[in-house]
Design goal:
One of its GO terms (molecular function) is [glutamate-ammonia-ligase] adenylyltransferase activity. This protein is 59% helix and 5% strand. It is mostly helical. The strands form 3 sheets. Strands 3, 4, 5, 6 and 7 form a 5-stranded mixed beta sheet that branches. 45% of the residues are buried.
Length: 965
């Protein structure tokens, strides 16, 4: 864990210490390069407490005659303000003299000695160490020798070590008594499967000066037989109590740390040490938002650290939700209000007696603000899962979840508040956060901080108010007046809303009650409000649960506008969104309205996302969620006019290609677990049709062919080997299942494999030799036409290169133009005979529509012997070949572009046959915009005239057609 941020260097056992830039360079270069520059403690002092009381200051000077100069001033000022630290100087003055020569080395040596010491006197040893750590860190803090992060990090590291030693001693006692079945002293290094989790500030490495330590103690019950479980649990419970007593009991030598074990699951009824499985069950079924927040900072600090890390990994789905969890805002806000009410901390800020931790503008508000934002988005972005408060603010700003200026300001206030907190606690070693309520005590605190009291009071008030203003707006509900009631309020549609599943819970009803005026106000601004209301009603009716989504809307009102846009344009898309509402997360996640990143960046992102998932099913679920969010992004950009239909079709194709390319090796790896690695040279996935051409719409299926090369291998080498043909057939089926299986996240794509050799009668996977033989000897002309749009989507580079080379060779063969065009004419006739004339609003099927124009372009590409061309280039080549004139080719290209725009727009808003009478005003307006028309009549006239002329051009250009068979 990164704990320290300013001027740190690495010393013994990885312990980070502040030593100054010159010394860091010298240590890094080594003794052979230059002598170590030693900066004295005195030379590093940057501030100095003033004695509040002269007598204890003078006593300290007399008791520590070895101190002079700035060190003597620091000791006197500290003793004159803090009776507690004055007492520590009397106890540990001799040790302090040497420790101040090199405080980092002194701490490292102290820790090393503790680790090596026998456990016979662990309580005494830890109390002595606590006095020394407390004294040295206080002086380094007060003198400005160490920054805050080094101070809190040193205290936290000592707490880790103290827990480790106290636990080891407690477990040794149980082992010697034979109370931990099967365990010997050799098992003490891993604590017999018991782990101590550091929570709160200790977990984050931010322990305050006189802090309790919050611990959760667990043990791995899987290490014990069923008959031994109860005895083992009893032994671990006794060890936990002994450890807590070693740390927390007040003796003549002091104490080490007050220990709080109440953060464990249901502490009123559970033992102080419980099994990991029982704890996990509790969190899965009963865990609350505050417990999720607590686990942001959790880390194993003593005992079996590996077992503790495994437990935290298993708990990750509880802490970090896969969706943006804006409902956590209300939970955190409610908890803040309960704390304020319980502690009596409401009301305006007044310095006298103000609680620097829990009061308004205090430390806890900054922590809640940071942790709640981490909970909201940390499930989607692992980079946000940092433990420290300042690091959390920093990464939230880097990821765009709050402005950088806000993060910097809150970080400054947090550091300042923590320093005040430390000085409050240094005076009497009290676990207090309350500012003094007596004038003389305020004066003492100002002396210890070395500040002008009047100015400091003013600055502190400003800081507290600034923190409160920055954080309160995030938690509190919008206090702006609700919009005026709209005529929609009286609609009969609204009367049925309380019966919908999304509004079954009281909490959902409460949030939606606050949202409803805003939603209705936005619906009222639609072109046809009643129509928009009905569309929104369809969305709400299909929503299975409401709390999370309503919380998302409440925190991000711009999403209401987006939802109204979607529901107004496409009730069909709205119904889809009601079942896949988490795609709204992507809008808030940052970069949603940025430019398209391109296939390479998408591939890198998807690979990284899937690499974090532990198993195959989770990878598939994650791939579906990832694809759905990007798919939604393309649709919203098209809906909002940020991209046109051509750009949308390219982006849909990029997304499909990346999904195939990344998922294919994932499917293969899972399949190989049972049946071995792919035999021979592996297999490639060949994209056909619109996928191969790189032009898809929102509901396109994927036309693919799988081609493999056994390279002389007959069977796979796995635990359950398969013959090569069976292996690749089943592997292909596994890919189809991965793409098409309907899951809670939806399906990835529909898959069409009818373009493979021999169509549905052929094997689902084809060997390279069979593919070559078929295409060279048995394939129909239309199959060669289809190959002009083929593109390798996934698979090993060498095999992909061979397939590309063969395809280029095949398509480069000379063709008789009249024969090819006659075949195309026959295909037109067959399609017309099978499909009929097509519906008027169908842009794909029918005379002069997309499919016919694509056939003409493919024929030209085949005759050009160039392999592949886009549609415009193919039609242009037909001019050079002499069977189209330039004006006709241009009209065909324009007609196809127009029909394609209509197809892309229509498929975004509905999966049904296009019918303007059922689209509503929003859907019709969208289609007009995406096709560049003004009015549905103009759109119909353009479609009719363009396709009619295109049909006439093709009739004239192609040879006379035979009757369809």
């Amino acid at each position: 864990m990164v704990r320290f941020f300013l001027h740190l260097t690495q010393l013994a056992e990885g312990y980070a210490r502040h030593a100054g830039r010159a010394r860091q360079q010298a240590i890094a270069l080594g003794p052979a390069s230059c002598p170590i520059v030693h900066m004295t403690f005195a030379s590093r002092i940057t501030r100095m407490p003033r004695p509040f009381a002269a007598e204890p200051a003078d006593d300290a000077r007399a008791a520590l005659p070895w101190a002079d100069g700035p060190v003597a001033e620091l000791l006197a000022g500290t003793a004159g303000c803090s009776p507690y630290l004055r007492g520590l100087m009397g106890h540990e003055g001799d040790w302090l003299q040497g420790a101040l020569d090199d405080p980092e080395a002194a701490i490292a040596t102290l820790f090393a000695d503790l680790r090596a010491a026998p456990l016979d006197h662990v309580a005494l040893d830890l109390r002595q160490a606590k006095r020394r750590v407390a004294l040295l860190t206080a002086l380094a803090d007060l003198g400005g020798v160490w920054p805050l992060e080094t101070v809190t990090g040193t205290l936290s590291d000592f707490a880790d070590l103290a827990c480790t030693r106290a636990l080891r001693a407690a477990l040794m006692a149980e082992v010697k008594r034979g109370k931990l079945p099967g365990l010997t002293e050799d098992h003490l290094d891993t604590a017999g499967g018991m782990v101590v989790l550091a929570m709160g500030k200790m977990g984050a490495g931010e322990l305050n000066y006189s802090s309790d330590i919050d611990l959760i103690c667990l043990f791995d019950e899987s290490r014990f037989d069923r008959d031994d479980f109860h005895e083992a649990r009893a032994g671990f419970i006794r060890a936990t109590r002994r450890m807590a007593a070693t740390l927390g009991d007040q003796t003549g030598e002091g104490y080490v740390f007050r220990t709080d074990l109440r953060l464990r699951p249901d502490p009123a009824v559970t033992p102080v040490c419980m099994g990991m499985e029982a704890a996990e069950r509790y969190y899965e079924s009963l865990g609350r938002t505050w417990e999720r927040a607590a686990y942001i900072k959790a880390r194993p600090c003593a005992g079996d650290l590996d077992a503790g890390q495994r437990f935290l990994s298993d708990l990750r789905p509880f802490v970090w939700r896969r969706h943006l969890d804006f409902a956590a805002i209300q939970d955190a806000h409610d908890m803040r209000l309960r704390i304020r009410a319980h502690k009596g901390l409401g009301g305006a800020i007044s310095l006298a007696g103000h609680n620097m931790k829990l009061g308004r503008g205090g430390i806890r508000e900054i922590e809640f603000f940071t942790q709640t934002r981490q909970i909201i988005a940390g499930g989607r972005d692992p980079d946000l899962r940092v433990r420290g408060t300042v690091p959390g603010l920093t990464v939230l700003a880097e990821k765009g979840w709050l402005p950088d200026a806000v993060a910097q300001e809150l970080s400054q206030h947090y550091r300042s508040h923590r320093e005040v907190e430390h000085r409050l606690q240094m005076i009497h070693d009290q676990q207090t956060h309350d500012l003094p309520d007596k004038p003389e005590d305020f004066a003492r605190l100002a002396c210890l901080m070395d500040v002008d009291e009047a100015k400091w009071r003013h600055d502190l008030i400003e800081r507290l108010n600034a923190v409160h203003e920055l954080t309160e707006g995030f938690f509190a509900s919008d206090s702006s007046p609700a919009p005026e009631p709209t005529p929609l309020e009286n609609s009969e549609v609204i009367a049925r809303w309380p019966r919908y599943p999304a509004l079954r819970s009281d909490r959902a009803v409460e949030i939606f009650k606050r949202l409803r005026p805003e939603i209705l106000c936005r619906l009222e601004r639609a072109a046809k409000p009643e129509e928009a209301l009905l569309a929104f009603d369809g969305f709400l009716a299909g929503l299975p649960a409401g709390v999370q989504l309503f919380s998302l809307f409440e925190a991000n009102h711009q999403l209401i506008d987006l939802l109204v846009d979607i529901t107004s344009v496409s009730p069909d898309l709205a119904r889809h969104l009601s079942q896949n509402s988490r795609v709204f997360d992507a809008v808030i996640g940052g970069g949603f309205f940025a430019d398209w990143p391109g296939a390479d960046a998408l591939s890198e992102e998807l690979n990284a996302v899937l690499a974090r998932e532990p198993d195959y099913e989770r990878k598939l679920d994650t791939a579906r969620r990832w694809k759905n969010e990007w798919h939604f992004r393309v649709g919203v950009h098209l809906l909002r006019g940020l991209i046109d239909a051509a750009e949308a079709s390219t982006q849909y194709a990029d997304l499909a290609g990346v999904t195939l390319g990344v998922l294919w090796p994932v499917v293969q790896a899972d399949f190989a677990l049972k049946h071995g690695q792919a035999p021979g040279r592996g297999a490639i996935v060949l994209g056909m049709g619109s996928l191969g051409a790189g032009r898809l719409h929102a509901r396109s299926d994927l036309d693919v062919i799988v081609i493999y090369d056994p390279d002389g291998v007959e069977t796979s080498d796995g635990a359950r080997p398969l013959q090569v043909r069976v292996y690749y057939a089943r592997l292909t089926q596994a890919l189809i299942t991965a793409l098409t299986a309907p899951m809670p996240q939806g399906k990835l794509y529909e898959v069409d494999m009818r373009l493979r050799p021999s169509g549905n009668q052929g094997p689902v996977a084809t060997s390279l030799a069979a593919f070559r033989a078929y295409q060279s000897g048995d394939a129909w002309t239309w199959e060669h036409l289809a190959l002009t749009r083929a593109r390798v989507m996934a698979g090993p580079d060498d095999l992909a290169g061979d397939v590309r080379a063969y395809r280029a060779e095949l398509l480069a063969a000379p063709r008789d133009q009249d024969s090819v065009l006659r075949e195309v004419a026959t295909m037109r006739a067959r399609i017309a005979g099978a499909k009929g004339p097509g519906a008027f609003w169908d842009p794909k099927l029918g005379r002069g529509r997309m499919q016919e124009i694509e056939l003409a372009a493919q024929a030209s590409a085949l005759l050009s012997r160039a392999g592949s061309m886009d549609l415009a280039a193919g039609l242009a080549a037909a001019v050079a070949q002499g069977w189209l004139d330039a004006e006709s080719a241009d009209h065909l290209a324009q007609t196809h572009a127009f029909c394609w725009s209509l197809q892309v727009g229509a498929r975004l808003i509905s999966d049904s046959q296009l019918d303007p009478d059922k689209l509503g005003a929003g859907g019709c307006a969208f289609l007009q915009r995406v096709t560049g028309q003004t009015g549905m009549k103009a759109l119909a006239d353009t479609l009719n005239s363009h396709t009619g002329r295109a049909a006439d051009i093709l009739d004239s250009a192609l040879p006379p057609r035979g009757e369809p068979e």
